[in-house]
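Subject: design request, 124 residues
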């Protein structure tokens, strides 16, 4: 059973940076395309970024492209989201997600594994 555990959330001022990490564990935790989603209060969960296996392809939402970078370490079994130039509207619970596929995707329905989420709060 594959498990995803996020870490790295917290409080940061607007314009600052934060790095989220997702640790994959369990049988079958390799060879998965991975993604990050986020959900703000009163809003639906939305796509942020995704990375293929083994990591040649990435995809970003328009709202974070150029500010966020997704990467993976296939030896350590981690997927990171480096967030820069943070804005108050980036405040959300961020979720790590995994696909039963090696290709990137940006729809929530394409992901079958989910972490518990980590809170990111950006103050103005």
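Subject: RE: design request

Done. Sequence follows.
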């Amino acid at each position: 059973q594959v498990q995803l555990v996020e870490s790295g959330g917290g409080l940061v001022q607007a314009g600052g940076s934060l790095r989220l990490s997702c640790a994959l564990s369990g049988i079958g935790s390799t060879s998965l395309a991975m993604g990050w989603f986020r959900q703000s209060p009163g809003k639906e969960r939305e796509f942020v970024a995704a990375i293929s296996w083994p990591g040649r392809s990435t995809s970003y939402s328009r709202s974070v492209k150029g500010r966020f970078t997704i990467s993976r370490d296939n030896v350590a079994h981690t997927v990171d989201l480096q967030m820069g130039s943070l804005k108050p509207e980036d405040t959300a619970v961020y979720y790590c997600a995994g696909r039963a596929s090696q290709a990137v995707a940006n729809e929530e329905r394409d992901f079958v594994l989910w972490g518990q989420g980590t809170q990111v709060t950006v103050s103005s």
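The chain has a mean pLDDT of 95.
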